Amino acid sequence: MQASVGDRIRVHGRTVGDREQEGEIVEVRGEQGTPPYLVRFSDGHEGLMFPGPDCEVEAHAE
């Protein structure tokens, strides 16, 4: 997975009833766009994450 600052990341719920989380990548700490990513989620909290197969990245519009 590769991403850039400003891209959106979406984490799908793992079980029935879990809600999807969405956030903005504010820092890329890996080489050439690889994880880990510092993400600011829509509820305001920030966290360092290593996305798994339940995540997708949407490139930001230029």
Automatic annotation (TrEMBL):
Residue span(s) of domain DUF1918: 1-57
Organism field: Prauserella muralis
InterPro entries in the record: DUF1918 (IPR015035)
Signal peptide: none
Protein name (Swiss-Prot/TrEMBL): DUF1918 domain-containing protein
Chain positions covered by the region annotation Disordered: 1-20
Superkingdom of source: Bacteria
A Pfam cross-reference name: DUF1918
Bias (Basic and acidic residues) ranges: 7-20
